[in-house]
Amino acid sequence: MADETNGTAVGxxxxxxxMGKWLLLVGAVIMLSGLLFGYDQGVIAxxxxxxxxxxxxxxxxxxxxxxxxxxxxxxxxxxxxxxxxKIGRRLTILLAAILFVIGALCESLAPGTTILVIGRLIVGxxxxxxxxxxxLYAAEQAPTRLRGRFVSIYQLAITMGIFxxxxxxxxxxxxxxxxxxxxxxxxxxxxxxxxxxxMPDSPRWFLKVGRKDDAIxxxxxxxxxxxxxxxxxxxxxxxxEEDESPATWGEVFSKxxxxxxxxxxxxxxxxxxxxxxxxxxxxNKIFAQAGFETxxxxxxxxxxxxxxxxxxATLIAVVYVDRFGRRPLLLxxxxxxxxxxxxxxxxxxxxxKADTSGAGAGGPTTAGxxxxxxxxxxxxxxxxxxxxxxxxxxxxxxxxxVRGRAVAVATAFNWGSAWLVSQFFLTLIDSIGNSATFYxxxxxxxxxxxxxxxxxxxxxxxxxxxxxxxxxxxxxVQSQRDAGTL
Length: 486
Ligand code: BGC
Known about the structure:
Largest sheet: none
Order of helices and strands: HHHHHHHHHHHHHHHHHHHHHH
Number of strands: 0
Radius of gyration: 23 Å
Helix content: over 70%
Shape: globular
CATH class: Mainly Alpha
Mean pLDDT: 86
Strand content: under 5%
CATH architecture: Up-down Bundle
Number of domains: 1
Bound molecules: beta-D-glucopyranose
Distance between the termini: 26 Å
């Protein structure tokens, strides 16, 4: 999605772009989509207890209610690429907004768990569609110089959405109002619909479907400071030189693309199996086990230690990702994640022991506070590394023609792994215990470190064409090391 598809063609407008009204609205679209994504992921942490009380739901049902959003998102992400090509980016985003509203209403009015789960699936589908279509739309509308920032705003908005959800959870926690918590996401969804409605589709999509006049109109509306006709001609010229025949799925999985595809899928999977969403979703429960006894205490810990830290550390990444490079951020983040996950494992080991001997009652214990600090370190380490950098890399390693499909595959792997973790986290805790579960996440972080060290080349500061050259080497990382560029 973030892309050079327009990168080749906007040389005429390299002057400092003006942030006009319509361009700000493009920013609002990406912001609202990210907020919705994050809100829907974060809100469930505070709603679970109320849902459990209302429906007397079992652990399995609670895990389904939590995690099926990601199943819906997996399917949504897979269909979004071709949908956005067929009906356009604008209609696809409008559709996602409508799905959000319908899903949120199903959730909040659900008479039983079946409708609730259906609502979660619909919301998830909307999240998945938006997670592909909104960054794609923003990348295509943004001037080249601002494109990176437009796309990284998305990750920032996700973390802000999670934070807002935690604040809502905290405000409503004592009132057992899970229906309101889930229903509230209809508000930003309606806003997204209203902002998107008067917007034109992206000029690039109009060109793709042969509507050149509309492309020129759309471009002059969103960016009145550029010579729209000249720029559209330039884009047209550049794309004429590319092979425009549609990519096939066979091509995505061909031997030629194996290396970047493995890097994309590997990063997507490691981002999830190192435990981020277990913590985002089940933070209140983890803090409860760590000795935070009241729901208010748990919610406060979740809001500030997880939610706020996540936003702040993501800001760091947005600023530094192009300065430090992808590999140093990823590797440094994984060191922090491994150490903090191991610490949580160790403290749970002692807390579990204390519990069986009858001690540990009455507010957060020392071990509980250490868990809190360790989780802060974990979230911060994730947020400046795997959180944003994985998405950056996934979007820059594939050649133009197959990017849409290849990104959809990597995104689907990401949602699939997120689903596995959130579906089985509580089961894991029940069967192997708290400590072992966190040691397992720590073990995956070590594996991720070794694999990234050996397999993920540095892409910072390289043009898309240079990145494609990287894959011609048998061992791209070794070649970069030999060339002294690592
Ligand atoms: C991940 C999400 C996660 C979020 C947390 C994103 O990069 O893809 O699964 O919930 O970061 O901030």
